[in-house]
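Hey, I was hoping to borrow your eyes for a little while. I'm sending you its amino acid sequence along with the backbone structure tokens. Take your time with it, there's no hurry, and the full record follows here.
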Amino acid sequence: MTKTLYLMRHGQTLFNQLHKIQGACDSPLTAQGIADAQQVGRNFKAHGVTFDHVYSSTQERASDTLELVTDQPYERLKGLKEWDFGLFEGESERLNPQQDPIRKSYGDYFLAYGGESDLQVQARMVKTLRTIMDQPDHQEVLAVSHGGADFMFLRRWLSIDEIKRQEIKFTNCAVLKFSYEAGEFTFEHCYRPEDQ
């Protein structure tokens, strides 16, 4: 039986606004982040989208976002947390490295600074989301995570060329919709707060 996963990025935070690297570290939602999360909640209701289970990263920006989208009880999971950028946490985004030309991401760069590699983040996200979706009573699931983690999860199922071709944007509060069956996720669509 096919199931549905809605994987959402948290709302805009102070560090997003200040263009600071934000992985393991946290910062509060801005007024825009709050408004966008509330709009996503209204969009789900307007389209009759309901969830039998909801999950959040353990980071407050994700759980705060989820609580603005729905008042359902939820579980916080470490497996949904953002990419750990090690010593780069809280620094300017201008310090981010160039993409690895083969992997089309930051690759192993942050390992040398106490962070995670792209493939570690991807494996963690895939394992966590498969575990969630394999539960028999999980048919329609919302999970709130983070931009880097969501991107690496999507990269497991779509090539970088396909992501560019479909113009998938990882803006704050973007929602990636996937169908799930037999351990495999299929990307369907990306929704953003401004989408009606």
